[in-house]
Specification:
2 copies of one chain form a homodimer.
Chain A: H1 9-20, E1 29-32, E2 36-46, H2 47-50, H3 57-74, E3 78-88, H4 94-110, E4 115-122, E5 127-137, E6 152-156, H5 161-171, H6 177-183, H7 189-198, E7 201-206, H8 211-222, E8 225-229, H9 239-243, H10 245-254, E9 261-265, H11 270-276, E10 279-286, E11 290-294, E12 297-300
Parallel strand pairs in A: 3-4, 8-11
Antiparallel strand pairs in A: 1-2, 2-5, 3-5, 6-9, 6-10, 7-9, 8-10, 11-12
């Protein structure tokens, strides 16, 4: 686990939130506009730690916008625009720049929004920071806080796909569809919005760092726990065949990059959530602890997943 | 001048604006909220290119927020919040992190706003990307476009101070007040807002990269030119005594970091602008060309100033 002065990335975030004061630990910050909320989020991506070597510049652009939009989706908001600050490295010739910015633009357009502006800079290592904006009605906004014991734990789509894509690429399975999932993530914009409108969801976040860390974050904010039923986890198509069931579940838990929505649903309103989008119930909210149940056994899920090494870490 | 494929930073920005389509070349992007505009800007800063070696981590935090707020000031907007994405390098121990984030928070508070959220990441070189938000009434928003020949060219405060501070530090004048100006820039938030309310300003931007580049940008957007009267340029206190008049004027023109507002005023409304804030008339808008008049001579001002080396630059 990443550490700095004995603190993990997530512990550092809590420390920083104390310095800053009044910052909510949601996927986006929200600003009261009177009639609705503006939600806004920023994510920084680097060549080495965030973009697999095989990524082309268009895909780097796509991913940079996609991960930022995913935070807007997690709040149940409608996207309103994206800004991109790009620190370009020496590899960035005109072709690279054209492709990168086309990737930004294409991803924003695909989700019905656009690039509003940005900053251009140079850097040893390619660095892209996106900032995404969205709007959401006051009574529809979804936050990480709100889950209650007894609520159903759900996910959109399938899990482990991005982790499987990374594995496939490293093992030389260049034709795996999971590689595309890794390189061209599709944030759940329509699903996030529909779930917000369903009125059935009590808490939500995206699982950019894997299910285990998402559950750890949700548990902390809600002072609650989770029980996941292993056999209900919707594993990405082809994943079990490729790596076996045990490794597939491990990828769902701890590999980053899936960008699904993890959310909790009032059990009496499950039908409404199911009408909003395809989802899978994978467990429930419990009083405490984060547990995986498989073949009658219950084991603790440790908060392991994709965390950045922060600063002077030993 | 920075180049990539034969293109300068500013030429690259124009190329990228074409790829993105519909992006205004203002200090902030603006989003129509119905009753008002949301303005939003992003700026990326790096350890080596943006933070002088003598800067302490609190000052790095202060500056990162200050440069982002300056863009909000340039639109005549009221600040509404700032996001910060920090890519921390190995030098960032807990003390560094506490000071950096205190600098973020103190600068935001000083200008009546706050840090809304952000992202934490790690990086070889310290990299901070801010994203600032503001609100401005629809009839008050100030843009780079709007200057007409005959309008007066004005600046807030004094020029050349940050350049002088850099010089003083390099030459070993460690007690110069200009060094503080370099390290702890003060964006003109109140002035920008008051100028917007005055109704006298026709175009505005901040001069983060020096006066010469600001005039070049304003000339391009307005398809107009500028005539600057050298003896009217308000040079930072102590600058001429330290480096001589010629070098002081050169610093005003081409050194980055002053974060004053450069704007044009309808000459019939000058009194209103003067009532809004301290300003100096340094010239006027002309049909074409960017000129400096000194002792009866008129010379062209070349667009030289602080530009980043972008990407694969030769």
């Amino acid at each position: 686990m990443a550490e700095c002065g004995g603190k993990s990335e997530r512990e550092l975030i809590l420390r920083i939130m104390e310095i800053l004061g009044g910052v909510e630990n949601d996927d986006c910050a929200s600003l009261d506009l009177g009639d609705r909320y503006l939600v806004v989020s920023t994510d920084m991506l680097h060549r080495e730690s965030d973009f697999p070597d095989i990524m082309n510049p268009w895909q780097m652009g796509w991913m940079s916008v996609a991960v930022n939009l995913s935070d807007v989706a997690a709040m149940g908001a409608e996207p309103a625009g994206v800004l991109v600050a790009a620190g370009l490295s020496a590899e960035a010739d005109l072709y690279f720049i054209d492709e990168l910015f086309s990737g930004f633009s294409d991803c924003a357009s695909y989700y019905g929004t656009r690039i509003l502006g940005g900053d251009l800079d140079s850097h040893q290592e390619l660095t892209i920071t996106g900032c995404s904006l969205g709007f959401v009605e006051k009574d529809l906004i979804l936050r990480r806080r709100g889950a209650r014991p007894g609520d159903l734990l759900c996910t959109t789509g399938t899990l482990g796909g991005a982790g499987g894509g990374l594995w496939a690429w490293k093992e030389g399975y260049s034709d795996s569809e999971l590689i595309t999932r890794l390189l061209e993530p599709e944030p759940r914009m329509a699903e996030g919005r529909a779930l917000a409108k369903s009125g059935a969801v009590t808490a939500m976040m995206d699982n950019s760092d894997g299910l285990a860390l998402s559950l750890s974050d949700l548990a902390g904010v809600n002072r609650a726990g989770f029980l996941v039923r292993e056999e209900t986890i919707p594993l990405a198509a082809g994943l079990v065949e490729m790596v076996g069931r045990e490794k597939a579940v491990e990828m769902a838990l701890s590999a980053g990059g899936d960008f699904e929505l993890i959310f909790t649903v009032d059990p009496e309103k499950l039908a409404r959530a199911e009408a909003a989008c395809d989802l899978t119930v994978i467990g429930e909210v419990v009083q405490e602890g984060i547990w995986m149940e498989a073949q009658g056994m219950r084991n603790q899920i440790l908060p392991r997943g994709f965390e950045h090494r922060i600063g002077g870490c030993r």
